[in-house]
Design goal:
- Helix content is 22%, strand content 33%.
- The chain is built from three helices and ten strands; from the N terminus they run E-H-E-H-E-E-E-E-E-H-E-E-E.
- With 147 residues, the chain is of the alpha+beta class.
- The longest helix has 12 residues.
């Protein structure tokens, strides 16, 4: 049987993609992607309108999307590599996530404190088989664990 490797990115529905990109880039040590050259090209070509663009940290950004990338992963093409895309959706989060990230860190307490300073919140704690973790939520309430 032939093994096929599939590239993927994680997409997060949200209300404020730039808020979450800033939080998660700091949480994971990822880089916020700079889409300003692409945006300039699309604006010049008339493919996007000025109402689809905002300024974030002095650069043009898509109003409804932001992305972060693992700086250690070379990106051969858009949408590939260690990437998380945050995209605006009209509905708000209403139930517990069916998928979440576990952040494996060397110092759980220090990481939890740093993530709280960044805008995250502690929502609980868990333990199984002598191993404990902290359940947290990002600024829009998306759950994740620090292990």
């Amino acid at each position: 049987m032939e093994t096929i490797t599939t590239s993927f990115k994680i997409c997060v529905d949200c209300a404020d993609p730039h808020l979450l990109a800033a939080f998660w880039s700091a949480a994971l040590g990822y880089d916020i992607e700079d889409h300003s050259p692409l945006i300039r090209h699309l604006l010049d070509a008339g493919a996007v309108g000025p109402d689809e663009v905002i300024e974030v940290d002095g650069r043009q950004a898509f109003r409804a999307a932001a992305a972060i990338r693992d700086p250690a992963v070379a990106a051969p093409a858009v949408g590939q590599g260690g990437r998380v895309l945050f995209q605006t959706v009209p509905e708000s989060k209403s139930v517990k996530n069916r998928l979440h990230l576990d952040l494996h860190v060397p110092d759980q307490a220090a990481t939890v404190a740093r993530l709280v300073e960044l805008g995250g919140s502690v929502t609980g704690h868990g333990e199984q088989g002598g191993h404990g973790w902290t359940v947290m939520a990002d600024p829009e309430g998306n759950e994740f664990c620090v292990v």
